[in-house]
Amino acid sequence: MNKIAILGTGSWATGLARVLNDNGHTVMMYGIDQGEIDDINIRHCNYKYFKDVHIEESIRATSSLNEAIDGAQYIVITIPTQFVRETLEKVKPLLKEKVIVVNAAKGFDMNTNMRMSDTIREVLNESIEPVVSLIGPSHAEEVVERILTAICAVSLDEDIAKKVQKLFSNQYFRVYTTTDEIGAEYGAAYKNVIAVASGIIAGLGYGDNSRAALITRGLHEMSLYGLLKGGKKETFFGLTGIGDLIVTCSSLHSRNFQAGYDIGESERALDFMTHNTKTCEGVRTCKVIHEDVKMHDYHIETPIVDAVYRVLYEGANPKEVVASLMMRDLKSEQL
């Protein structure tokens, strides 16, 4: 069995730690919140995220990065994307042998807007094997309860992806493989913006018809953008595309959906943008995609991203923005 270091002690870190522990691996979580570390080591829970879940005593946590990664064959990244680069810069000098890095953070590098796999390669380069990302419809709140889940191990190297597939797969956590890193990562990021929009329309009081339309047109918009970036069309109709999109747009577990709901319910984004303390990748991703499309003139339309951008960053009224989407010029569904 393997020793696996998990960077993070949050909800996703805890869910994946339990999967790996169930599979017989040695798990060491690294965190900076001493309360979470004590919960895991002493009380065998992670009360901040899961009120009623008992964590096995064999799962350990530490505030020492060196202790976490010493002897580890795999490093799993679950921290928010804005902290990935600086954390990996601390990891690099501690690595004594090549490791496999498994990325479970979804979004873009805060400083460069690079995809996470590119950021990991740039920082750790020759210190690691090919990067693998875990992407798919998987809320930590269900994974930690061992509820049936299927996701993808995404890597440019299929053999490494298969290693990670075997590492995580069990009777309740099924892992597929794909080599379309670009399509999977852009899908994983883009769907968070659509989820914010889904929360907004729910908060405004719209129903299932509205959400179905949003998800369907969101998939179209997401795939157009992803194809331009070099992704494969079929990827957007798999687990890392429509699968991840559906669950993130439909679940109360989704922080992006919850953020949108709060904005829709209050009919403005100001309070949320001022006081939010939770990680909500869709807020920043919206800005990155909107500005990227505007700067490069890709000759595609991204009306949902543009609408969310207007609400988040220009103070537009959500109800008025939704109405404007409905009144856009009529067109063929394929356009």
3D architecture notes:
- The chain has 335 residues and is of the alpha/beta class.
- The protein has two domains: 3-178, NAD(P)-binding Rossmann-like Domain (Rossmann fold); 189-326, N-(1-d-carboxylethyl)-l-norvaline Dehydrogenase, domain 2 (Orthogonal Bundle), CATH 1.10.1040.10.
- It is built from 15 helices and eight strands.
- It has helices at 11-22, 34-43, 65-69, 84-91, 116-124, 140-143, 158-168, 181-203, 208-229, 239-250, 255-266, 270-275, 281-296, 303-313, 318-326; strands spanning 3-7, 26-30, 60-62, 74-77, 100-103, 132-135, 149-154, 173-178.
- An eight-stranded mixed sheet has the order 3-2-1-4-5-6-7-8, sandwiched between helices.
- The relative contact order is 0.10.
Query: How would a crystallographer describe the biggest sheet?
Result: 8 strands, mixed
The CATH superfamily of the largest domain bears the name: NAD(P)-binding Rossmann-like Domain
Helix and strand string, N-terminal first?
EHEHEHEHEHEHEHEHHHHHHHH
Give the CA-based shape: globular
Unreliable sequence segments: none
How many helical elements? 15
Whole-number mean pLDDT: 95
CATH domain topology of the largest domain: Rossmann fold
Task: Count every beta strand, where a strand is a DSSP E run of 2 or more residues.
Answer: 8
β-sheet strand percentage: 5-15%
CATH architecture type of the largest domain: 3-Layer(aba) Sandwich
Strand order of the largest sheet: 3-2-1-4-5-6-7-8
